[in-house]
Amino acid sequence: MNQNVVSLQLMNPRGEIDVPPVYNPSPRLSSLEGKKIGMYSNSKQGVDHFFTAIEDLLKQRYPDITTKRLTGAFEIRDEEVDGFISDIDAFIYAIGD
Predict the structure, then answer these.
(1) Cα 60 from chain centre
(2) CA-CA distance, 58 to 65, in Å (whole number)?
(3) Lesser CB count within 10 Å: N end or C end of the chain?
(4) Cα–Cα distance measured from residue 45 to residue 66, given in angstroms and rounded to the nearest whole number
(5) Is the pLDDT of residue 35 over 90?
(6) What pTM was estimated for this model as a whole?
């Protein structure tokens, strides 16, 4: 009689992932008049045309609005945010690939 014993271990294929903290969006601005808008991109092809179109539309509706273009990686690091967050009132995030 064969006494071979097989032992199996069941594994969860989903794994365990640390969930990053969730942040609520900032309150909506009552108006964009006189505001400075940061426009962030990862410099992919076509984003200049996209941002130019957005700037044109915004300036038609809010002539005294100003924009500031910012570039960087897909994920914005905390130290990058600290560098420009005090200089803008609102933020547009445009990432492509």
Answers:
(1) 25
(2) 7
(3) N
(4) 23
(5) yes
(6) 0.68
